Amino acid sequence: MAFSAAGSPKTTARGRLVFETSFRIVCTAAVLFGFVVLCFLAQQLIKDGWGSLSFKFLESPPSSNYPERAGIYPALMGTIWLMGLILILTVPLGIGSAIYLEEFAPRNGFTRIIQLNITNLAGVPSIVYGLLGVAAFGFAAEATGSQDLRKSLLAGAVTMSLMILPLVITASQEALKAVPRYHREGSLALGATRWEMISRIVIPSAIPGMMTGIILGLSRAIGEAAPLITLGAVTYLTFSPRGPLDLYSVLPIQIFDWAQRPEQIFQREKSAAAIIVLMGVLLLFNAAAIFLRSAARKRLH
Amino acid sequence: MSYRRSRARREWIARALTFACALVSIATTAGIVVVLVTESYHFFAKVGFGRFFGETTWSPLTEPRHYGIWPLAAGTAMIAIGAGLIAIPTGLLAAVFLSEYASERVRNAVKPVLELLAGIPTIVYGFFAVAYVTPILQRVIPSLPIYNALSGAIVVGIMIFPMVASLTEDSLRAVPKVQRESGIALGATKNEVIRKVVLTSARSGIISAFILAISRAVGETMAVTLAAGNRPQLTWNPANEIQTMSAYIVMVAKGDVPHGSLEYYTVFAVGLALFAITLVMNLLAARLVRRRSYGV
């Protein structure tokens, strides 16, 4: 291959050296771009939101009449409820699908279709899942006669679970793939059936990896608002849910509501404080995922 | 029942249950397609494809009613193109840095930062746009409205930057070392090897990463709903307030339109268009990745 274009400054020895150095600097600058944005965002959020953060903020309802007293209690509770329900739905479904695909599925066309389908589902915009939920739960509401079903925690949890399932399944499949072959063969050689091998040998060593996938899925769901707003989740709620059929709000929806208000105290300060809480939970999730990932590596080697 | 029979039975139950779990994802896709097509059918039966693709105004909620998708499509395109202009060059260069220049230690320090950036909820990017980006832009362009496409495109660009960087890095790292060494041995400088050997070799993987990131920008909802506004207009000026396809869906859903009304069905028609666009982009990206092969 020829590396020359006659007459260009890039062809002289000095020109090539200068270009090399500047190219390197530009590449480094591109990475720094990410750092700068992150630092700027963090610094601004703390500047605007820190003053509103207190235990009172966590345990008060979002009052409109007394902006300075407004808190995130119902949204925080809604988020915790939603995460709990999503967990109950996605753990069996996600791990079950991954086990089928990795351990039981025959290598045929139908399995390939399932796999390709999961990859494609991961790229479907979140709002489209919201539309699926609107139609499905709208239909269910007509059938059962309960009009608020579409706006219930249950509807939100099911819709969000479908949205994060592809992520959870793929991550769990990776975890199952990482279990060494000789563990499986050893178990089968001792007379275990396929399911005994899976349940006693493969799953226990894949658990940390699968948990990492579930945490990643949850951290996607915890920040997502679009499907829930499409379903009709309430943007302004002063009480917190007591059961899966109750109305609810979540942190991202509360932030969305506040960030659109004209008052500076809501638009800037209260939103920033709620974002700090949301990001705090996310960081905890991420830390747990990183910890589990290293635990998974240790267990397998 | 004998012990052997019960073991065989448990085996069968496990297989059946996990298979049922795997079917959920097939049912999800089928559900999405059926819902979008049947609900849009009610829309197209009344309005027709001609007005949907032929009119240049989108005002389905107010008189005079117009049903032309183009203002929403242009809004979405402007956000996606603007975001791409920011995220593609920076993401590509960042990927080159991570894969070609950074030491293992630097890489291990930078990767978590990118993951963190990628994990920030989109609503936070929306807040970022309204609270910080727009005020800064207004200092440069005083006539800029609070809600504008420019600010939305900038934050969506920042949002998809980590995705471009990490997907591109994956395809750069998949290029065999031998190819780089051959280039160096022929007397090329490092950046010549990168530009003419590595980037060329990883071409289809890189383009696939770009397409996936743009597809993500097309489907992005909360950041653009907050930042770019809710006024559908056919414009290519990024300083205008616009509405994207996803933002329209959110706006109508918030307004509690009655189930079964024409307004209700417009949401599904827009959703179907959005789904079709992102699906085509994702399939194209998947096809490009499958074709890549690194023969030495």
Kindly describe this structure.
The complex is a heterodimer of chains A (301) and B (296). Helices cover 73% and strands 0% of the residues of chain A. Chain A contains eleven helices and no strands. Chain A has helices at residues 13-49, 55-59, 73-104, 109-121, 126-144, 153-177, 181-189, 194-222, 226-231, 251-259, 264-300. The longest helix of chain A has 37 residues, at 13-49. The relative contact order of chain A is 0.14. Chain B is mostly helical and 296 residues long. The longest helix of chain B has 45 residues, at 3-47. Chain B is globular. The termini of chain B are far apart. The chains are: A mainly alpha (301), B mainly alpha (296). At the A-B interface, helix 1, helix 3, helix 4, helix 5 and helix 6 of A face helix 1, helix 3, helix 4, helix 5 and helix 6 of B.
**Main sheet of chain A, how many strands, which sense, barrel?**
none
The CATH class label of the largest domain in chain A is Mainly Alpha
In the CATH hierarchy, what is the superfamily of chain B?
A: MetI-like
Low-confidence stretches of chain B: none
Mean pLDDT of chain B: 91
Number of domains of chain B: 1
The beta-strand count of chain B equals 0
Shape type of chain B: globular
The greatest inter-chain interface is formed by: A-B, 94 and 96 residues
The tally of beta strands of chain A, per DSSP, is 0
Search tags:
heterodimer, A: 301 residues, mainly alpha, MetI-like fold, 2 domains, 11 helices, 0% strand, globular, disordered N terminus, B: 296 residues, 77% helix
Question: How do the strands and helices of this protein lay out in sequence?
Answer:
The complex is a heterodimer of chains A (301) and B (296).
Chain A: H1 13-49, H2 55-59, H3 73-104, H4 109-121, H5 126-144, H6 153-177, H7 181-189, H8 194-222, H9 226-231, H10 251-259, H11 264-300
Chain B: H1 3-47, H2 49-54, H3 70-101, H4 104-119, H5 122-140, H6 149-173, H7 177-185, H8 190-201, H9 203-219, H10 222-228, H11 245-254, H12 262-291
